[in-house]
Amino acid sequence: MSAKLVVGAQWGDEGKAKVIDFLSGEINLIVRYQGGANAGHTVLVGDQKYIFHLIPSGILYPKTICVIGNGVVLDPVAFITEVDDLMSRNIDAMERLVLSDACHLILPMHQMIDAHRETAAGGKKIGTTKRGIGICYADKMMRVGLRVGDLLSHRLRERLEHIVEAKNRELKNLYNLPEVKIDPLFEDLSKFAQKIKGIVKNTSLYLNGELARGKTVLLEGAQGTGLDIDYGTYPYVTSSNTTTGGAIAGSGISFQYLKEVIGISKAYTTRVGEGPFPTELHGEEEERLRKLGSEFGATTGRPRRVGWFDVELIRHASRVNGLTGIALTKIDVLSSYDQIKIGAGYKLKGEKIDAFPSTGLEDVEVIYETMPGWKTDISKARKLSDLPPACRTYVDRLVELTEVPIKLISVGAGREETIVL
Ligand code: IMP
Ligand code: MG
User: Fold this and answer.
1) Residue 41 annotated as catalytic
2) Active-site position among 13, 114, 150, 310
3) Which candidate in 123, 177, 307, 326 could, as Cys together with 279 as Cys, close a disulfide (CB 3.0–4.6 Å)?
């Protein structure tokens, strides 16, 4: 009947999985619409920790159908690894997964080229996850991609020969990398096709049909607005539209069904990989916040860069995504601070600017506001009035500055450590 979207408002790792998991109970279908196994979504249920890269985290709910939409780039190896892990933990993943026939497949050469290009770029590298994401999307645009639907076609061999030939020319002449052999690749892909053939669908048709029948859908974003190929800090971005437009294109759901767009934001900011980060902290302050927030990448294990809340980034995310609300996560991480800073705005060459610049974010100067800390454990808070006054003042100030209502506050990693407003 209606669709909800959960989208990252910062540079990814905002705690989307926790919020999605929290919302999943009342949802029939969950859809991933972009990105691939570069994502790392961590969910804590009791003492069980799950890290998802490709499969929507909603799979943990026994009745939820999880859909991998056409906008995703699917890594067969990562997919099977994740499914096997879930099955070994008694979660009937294959019974409740649906895979778009229009998904592009990540092939071994995509990862080889991604890793090679990053190494060759030296100081100019993007800091990718080396999962082959960007190279696979590039091939999609170059019209030399292989799709899930091709795997089930009698023309697979023919299509693969054309692709491997084209890629081998590149591997050899452009990158001086070893060529890919077609026979073992064809065999691997044929085996993969056998495993997935029962769950492949035209997912746009399927999802619109389910919505028309009164079902509820949650669209699960990966990465965040700051990493969007168009609206992020290009070139230090991922290779897909992580934002609302990408959710429509990458799922094939009619936009008319989309009634709610929830932006996820930490009560501070983090970023993995290279690129500008105006409110970034350095030295001891950086170490302190990283440690308090356990800010290490779920996919690559890299230490995340950390900084204060950035209002202009969220205002940008609100505009681009049409946010109807914000879920504020990890506010408990700030509980030990005497004072907390907010990056309340930007100045460029001494003049205040009311925008998140498309280029030249490196050059802005941040205007900070300093707020008193609350110095109390808030992890037991379950309603707004349980929060200490200084914490509520901090939250109110974020709402005032971003002009987006906060709908949910997360005060810990557990499902129950959540305040709904
Ligand atoms: P790629 O998506 O692997 O090509 O990496 C491009 C940029 O996006 C790099 O800065 C990565 O660190 C970043 N990135 C990709 N996926 C995630 C994610 O799930 N969380 C945070 N950053 C990500
Ligand atoms: Mg993550």
Assistant:
1) yes
2) 13
3) 307
